[in-house]
Amino acid sequence: MLFRMGISNLARLESLGRTDSLSLLPNRRALHHDTQAVLDSGEEVAVALIDLDGFKLVNDLYGHQVGDSVIRQVASILREVCDGNASTYRLGGDEFALTMAGTLSGTILEGICRGVLERLVHPIAIEDRRIGIGASIGLARTSKTHQYDSSELLRQADVAMYVSKRGGKMRCSWFREEFDRNLEALRDMDDELRSALLNEEFRVLYQPLVDAKSRRVVSVEALLRWVRPDGKLIGPDVFIPIAEESGLINSIGLWVLRVACGDALAWGNIKLSVNISAAQLRNPEFPIQLGNIIEETGFPAERLELEITETCLVLDPVVAERSLDIIRGFGVSVALDDFGTGYASIGFLRQFRFQKLKLDRSLVVDSAGDESSRAMMLSSISMARALKMDVTAEGVETQAQADLVRSAGCDQIQGWLYFRPMPPEEIEQHLLLPASPFECERDTYGKKIA
Questions:
Q1: CDD domains in the record, alphabetically (predicted)?
Q2: Alpha carbon distance 429, 449 (integer Å)
């Protein structure tokens, strides 16, 4: 009897060691054990790695108790969609996995994953809340000609999931060998970025903004460029996303702020605008670091303006609002950049209390020939006026566009019609003179830090 009780307890302990206590699904250890057993038998196996989108935001907004309820609800959804045709696991955090074995396992599992995404389009009900949650899914499989162990199969699914997340989320991606090559290229560029920062390969250029009425320079925007040792210019649209993912954006962003504040210190009373990425604003230490830079450089805080996009705020509004309150306390103003490309509501604008709205170039360009775009631009300006915000039109390239945004009521105009981005030594000669249009070709100098 004692022997039988000992065996029973051991089996119970083994079962507990293979079960996730929150979702009651099998855990990562069980996934590796079960998958390897099927692989050893010679059967083909397909694995799907599911990573929830927006789960951190749920924890931040509603607390971990609600987050735990979301995990349990998602586990229930996965069981229901799988309906016994695939095995379901929780790997920890907001990661889940599905597995299937057999010749058609890949095709069937992909269909199940698409069913999961369709279910997650609808909000999850937790008490009196309706919480939206999405997912990015990566799939990998073996075949008769390609056999892997469970760790490699899960790694491939993880790489494919990463591709889904970068591709816009709420999608499935099958692993392909080129993903590994692309990942290696990203790692190489990450190493190059670190060297670029150490070797001072970055350059800060400045694009003046003019007053819509007087056409005098009233502000400059700092724009980051990377000039490699071979002379090749790498656009920020290429290297900034990599810097954000690697965490290097914090160091690069602080470098830009320090250099720009130092350069602009002697430029009279004009404002200096610097773009801040979502990753920087999510860093709770950023306001302290900003304050240190202002103190070190002696730059007047009231002359500094930070430009942020909706993405910075939507991804983590709790941290963003807290950081912006501290930043405004320094006397620094905040502008919402690229307005017209997202879904900012009046409530959203009121919540974050921007001092300026920057109309995206696409809205300015489209307004010249499209009545609905022009109406949207006019309503945006009226809304900004009601909220006591200034308005800047970006990307103005023709006199017709300048006349349009000026008559619409924009306060400032920025674009190639007046000035291209230029090195700091060229800025001073333009500060005391009326802006005058000149012809220039558009190139990568027109792109922003983020």
A1: EAL, GGDEF
A2: 24
